[in-house]
Design goal:
By secondary structure, the chain is of the alpha/beta class. It folds into two domains: 280 residues, Aldehyde Dehydrogenase, Chain A, domain 1 (3-Layer(aba) Sandwich), CATH 3.40.605.10; 189 residues, Aldehyde Dehydrogenase, Chain A, domain 2 (3-Layer(aba) Sandwich), CATH 3.40.309. The protein is 39% helix and 24% strand. The protein has a seven-stranded mixed β-sheet with strand order 16-19-20-15-14-22-23, with helices on both faces. It has a six-stranded mixed β-sheet with strand order 11-10-9-12-13-25, with helices on both faces. The longest helix is centred in the first third of the chain and has 21 residues.
């Protein structure tokens, strides 16, 4: 089944298993909806346990005895780099589908997410033969060495906020090293994953090396974690779901890596460039509609510059009106669903009840009378005990707190169960480095926010998860080490 999408793309809506699009064994389908209009986009095949078994069998065969298993690393790399070229050439069309499915502005989807996904493919394609074992000159009577080998069949479970880009952080390093992949995309946003499966096949990926099984996370995600034929799970999503995945994976003692929630502190010191800090604060919380695990959702401001900074932040926030995601000028799109908008609205009401001061936004919105839109929202007078300071909202809601000095800034910044990201704004390089070292977060930006590179590892401390995506740390996540002892006597 396919659905026509302008300008020139047909949506694939069946499962992708063993190199082919196939209906689900049950025949069930679910509807994916455009959150900006409330209108259905397509009916997608709903995978079940028999479909997962079929995907595991296809991935296992490709890993153990198919052409993928026999392929040289540089051959694998060339396929990924070809896929990167194809994706970059179709960035506008893929971006349009991503925007329809997720509600994010077309500017973000087509001009940022898709090029970044292509760059990730290129990086790991170039890295396919660059991860080496070691020799250990410990004994004169033996040669001791280690080999880096692929883990096997990878179960990748991905979220709806960056549907293709975050999937790429898993797919690219896993395939580069010779693993095979079964992807379970979020049910809310499965469409670009299925299109990408078709693109990979066009680039030359053999059947079975990459499979896509959309379906409910409570069923397919759990079954994937429990499945004895899956060797590793790579999960991105919210923390409670991650804990459930860990429990499900325990029965087969499989490898697991996960990137979970965040409540990231964005720390602005009195000596910062306030114009740059205000602009960075807006980007930190409102890029992607605030539906980022790494969003700078807690603004920590030194008391002496609080009023001056907040004037700039509020002025910018009030200019960020929700708009049609398909308009290239829109910077605040629709939330992914009405359900998510209700969740965000609930947190705004909680903030009001607990005594936070609403400075901007705070209301549901619509564009043309439709859509799951929400205003860019700024709270002030927040304390660390409030829900909006402790819990991940996953929406365009900023909680502002103050601090007196560097010690208090670090203490408040670290007063969370999460540790995914943070930022520091200051002109004092020593203060910047001290604070970056003291903040318990996997990524700390200095005088910027939300910048990423495929070579720089990304992941969390504490309940933001473990393992790393991107960079050579990601390559290591998808290999296992074998020690070899060669007797020389």
């Amino acid at each position: 089944m396919s659905t026509e999408v302008k300008p020139s793309l047909k949506l694939q809506t069946d499962l992708f298993i063993g190199g082919k699009f196939v209906p689900s064994a049950s025949g069930k389908r679910f509807t994916t909806t455009n959150p900006a209009t409330g209108e259905p986009i397509a009916d997608v095949a709903e995978g079940g346990l028999p479909d997962l078994d079929q995907a595991v069998a296809a991935a296992r065969q490709a890993f153990e005895s198919g052409p993928w298993a026999a392929m040289k690393p540089r051959q694998r790399g060339r396929i990924l780099m070809k896929a990167a070229e194809l994706l970059l050439s179709r960035a506008d069309a893929f971006g349009q589908v991503e925007t329809m499915d997720n509600g994010k502005p077309i500017f973000e989807a087509a001009k940022i997410d898709m090029p970044a996904a292509a760059e990730c493919l290129s990086y790991f394609g170039e890295s396919a033969d660059k991860l080496y074992g070691e020799t250990h000159p410990a004994r004169p009577d033996a040669m001791l060495l280690t080999l880096r080998e692929p883990v096997g069949v990878i179960g990748a479970i991905t979220p709806w906020n960056f549907p293709l880009l975050q999937a790429m952080w898993k797919i690219a390093p896993a395939l580069a090293l010779g693993n095979t992949v079964i992807l379970k995309p979020a049910s809310a946003t499965p469409l670009t994953a299925l299109l990408f499966a078709e693109l990979l096949a066009e680039a030359g990926l053999p059947p079975g090396a990459f499979n896509v099984v959309p379906g409910p996370g409570a069923a397919i995600g759990k079954a994937m974690a429990e499945h004895p034929g899956v060797d590793k799970i790579s999960f991105t999503g919210e923390t409670e779901t991650g804990k459930a995945i860990l429990r499900a994976a325990a029965g087969t003692v499989k490898r697991v890596s996960m990137e979970l929630g965040g409540k990231s502190p964005n720390v602005v010191f009195a000596d910062a460039d306030l114009e740059a800090a205000a602009k960075g604060t807006i980007n930190a919380i409102f890029y992607g509609k605030g539906e980022l695990c790494s969003a700078g959702s807690r603004l920590l401001v030194e008391e002496s510059i609080h009023d001056a900074l907040m004037e700039k932040v509020v002025e910018r926030a009030r200019k960020m009106a929700p708009g049609d995601p398909m308009n290239p000028k829109t910077r605040l799109g629709a939330l992914v669903s009405e359900k998510q908008r209700d969740t965000v609205a609930g947190y705004v009401e909680a903030g009001k009840r607990e005594g936070a001061k609403l400075l901007a936004g705070g209301n549901r919105a619509s564009v043309g009378g439709k859509g799951a839109f929400f205003e860019a929202t700024v709270f002030d007078g927040v304390t660390p005990q409030m829900r909006i300071a402790k819990e991940e909202i996953f929406g365009p809601v900023l909680a502002t707190l103050t601090f007196k000095d560097e010690t208090e800034a670090v203490a408040v910044g670290n007063s969370t169960i999460y540790g995914l990201a943070a930022a520091v704004w200051t002109r004092d390089v020593k203060k910047a480095l001290r604070t970056a070292r003291a903040l318990k977060a996997g990524t700390v930006w200095v005088n910027t926010y939300n910048l990423y590179d495929p070579g720089l590892p990304f992941g969390g401390y504490k309940q933001s998860g473990f393992g790393r995506e991107r960079g050579f740390d990601a390559l290591r996540e998808y290999t296992q080490v074998k020690s070899v002892w060669v007797d020389l006597t």
